[in-house]
Amino acid sequence: MNDKTISFKRIPCPDCEGTGELRIESENINENFEAEKQTVIAECPSCRGMGFVIPEGSAPG
Length: 61
Description:
0% helix
């Protein structure tokens, strides 16, 4: 029987700082001409919401 364990080093995503989310601040003007601040939360495209990235060359192949 041949058991193999594959591991890789992962580092926190530099774009989302390990949260897996990007927070984008925006301002909108409402119908009363008042500025409203909003925070839009989106999945980080760099790590696909995982919060970490795998350094080049360390992925199992």
